[in-house]
C-alpha cells in the first residue's frame, strides 16, 4: 500500500529516522521517490541543504496556504486590514482587470511614491 502525499510529508516531518538528515540526504536515500509530486520533489531539491524535517513541514504548509510564494515563511509577515466589502470588491475587480493578485496589486499601490 502506498502513502498519500500528506502521509509521506508527515512521516518525513516527524520520524526520528530523519531528525539528522538534510533534504539532499533524504533524496539520495530514495526516501522521496514516488511519494511526492514533481512540484514537491523540486521543492526539496531547491532546499537540499536544509533539515528534511523543516522542509517537509514547510512543504505541508504550502498546501494549507502557509507559504503562498513557495518559500520558507521566516521572512514573511501578515498584515490584516478591515475595509468595507464594497471597497474590497472594487480592489479585487481592479486587480483582476490588471491581471494581478490582490496582494501584489495592493503592494504596488502602497509602495508607489
Task: Report what the structure shows.
The chain has 113 residues and is an all-alpha fold. It has two domains: 5-70, no CATH class; 79-113, no CATH class. The chain is 53% helix and 0% strand. It has helices at residues 5-14, 23-28, 38-46, 52-63, 85-97, 102-111. α1 packs antiparallel against α4 (52-63) and α5 crosses α6. It is elongated and about 50 Å long.
List keywords for this structure.
113 residues; 53% helix
Give the topology.
Blueprint: H1 5-14, H2 23-28, H3 38-46, H4 52-63, H5 85-97, H6 102-111
Helix pairs in contact: 1-4, 5-6
How would you summarize this macromolecular structure in one to three sentences?
Helix content is 53%, strand content 0%. It folds into two domains: 5-70, no CATH class; 79-113, no CATH class.
Number of helices in the DSSP assignment: 6
Radius of gyration: 19 Å
- Helix/strand-derived category reads mainly alpha
Which H/E pattern describes the elements? HHHHHH
Termini Cα gap = 58 Å
Q: Please give the largest β-sheet.
A: none
User: What's the average pLDDT?
Assistant: 80
Strand content: under 5%
Percentage of residues assigned to helices: 40-55%
Question: pLDDT under 50 segments (min length 5)?
Answer: 65-74
Shape: elongated
Amino acid at each position: 500500500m502506498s502513502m498519500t502525499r500528506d502521509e509521506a510529508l508527515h512521516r518525513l516531518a516527524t520520524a526520528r529516522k530523519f531528525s539528522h538528515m538534510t533534504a539532499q540526504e533524504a533524496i539520495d536515500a530514495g526516501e522521496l521517490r514516488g511519494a511526492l509530486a514533481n512540484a514537491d520533489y523540486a521543492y526539496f531539491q531547491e532546499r537540499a541543504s536544509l533539515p528534511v524535517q523543516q522542509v517537509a513541514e514547510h512543504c505541508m504548509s504550502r498546501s494549507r496556504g502557509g507559504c503562498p510564494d513557495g518559500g520558507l515563511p521566516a521572512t514573511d509577515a501578515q498584515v490584516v486590514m478591515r475595509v468595507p466589502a464594497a471597497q474590497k470588491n472594487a480592489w479585487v475587480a481592479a486587480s483582476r482587470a490588471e491581471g494581478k493578485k490582490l496582494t501584489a496589486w495592493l503592494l504596488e499601490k502602497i509602495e508607489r511614491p
